[in-house]
Amino acid sequence: MRIVIGISGASGAIYALEVLRRLRALGGHEIHAVVSECGWRILEHECSAGRAEIMPLVDALYANDDMGAAIAGGSFCRDAMVVAPCSMKSLAAIACGLADNLLCRAADVTIKEGRRLVLAVRETPLSAIHLENMLKLARLGVRIVPACPAFYHHPRTVDDLTGMMAGRILDSMGVIHDGIPRWQGLDQGKT
């Protein structure tokens, strides 16, 4: 699959790193990435990660002001795009078609070309404005995946939580993997 990853300036940059690590480990995926200016700051602050940590995980990394990048064009086919984490600013811009940076332009193109777009939104509490923007995009077929990890798998570490969320993001992109525990029901293993 050819996948575009956008990292915006919301808390939760660890989700993007985990998605990238899992895609790279799976192999067979062509990964293009764009990181907003605030996204770089959050990656550094929350994960102590910068370009040196991102570059081995992607095939191409674009500057957010590079509106001539391959991922800005509709004829650059992609199977899916995810914005993880997706800030409410990026959500609003995407919902309104405000493609004034590469991350939002790539999302806009993904929508107009009818490709799979996943937004791992990160905010709480949510205002009516946030909810209306999500609803508007969901009605267009955009997958809204709030960064809310599950607990049925009895996580013991932050890695367990981020891994579960990354797996759900991969599911929403249509990436086949077996990297998360799957719900088997409350009576699993009982006869």
Shape: globular
How many β-strands, per DSSP? Answer: 6
Q: What is the class in the CATH system?
A: Alpha Beta
**CATH homologous superfamily?**
Flavin prenyltransferase-like
Chart the SSEs and their pairings.
Elements: E1 2-7, H1 13-26, E2 30-35, H2 37-47, H3 51-54, E3 60-63, E4 80-86, H4 88-95, H5 102-112, E5 116-121, H6 128-139, E6 143-144, H7 158-173
Parallel strand pairs: 1-2, 1-4, 2-3, 4-5, 5-6
What does this structure look like?
The protein is of the alpha/beta class and about 190 residues long. The chain has a single domain, classed as 3-Layer(aba) Sandwich (Rossmann fold). It has helices at about 15-25, 35-45, 50-55, 90-95, 100-110, 130-140, 160-175, and strands spanning about 1-5, 30-35, 60-65, 80-85, 115-120, 145. The chain has a six-stranded parallel β-sheet with strand order 3-2-1-4-5-6, sandwiched between helices. Helix 4 crosses helix 6. The relative contact order is 0.18.
